[in-house]
Amino acid sequence: xxxxxxxxxxxxxxxxxxxxxxxxxxxxxxxxxxxxxxxxxxxxxxxxxxxxxxxxxxxxxxxxxxxxxxxxxxxxxxxxxxxxxxxxxxxxxxxxxxx
Length: 99
Prior knowledge:
By secondary structure, this protein is of the alpha+beta class. It contains 2 helices and 5 strands, in the order H-E-E-E-E-E-H. It is about 20% helix and about 45% strand.
């Protein structure tokens, strides 16, 4: 019986690009209300404001990239005074390393 060898892949999850997020939201009926991009050395911050249902729902997405890898993605609904964490690189890597 041949022995089985398990290989652990070292694939890197880059995350969604902010332009892909904008395109996705527009296909779902969003209206783009604002886009701010700040570039500093190896860090890119993108702030995307969209609205749905003729302005009844306003959403602001904050995406932070380091070396083109998504590090953090937060989503804030104007109607709620709360920010929702969509993705955090440290939490993701911690879950991945527990396998």
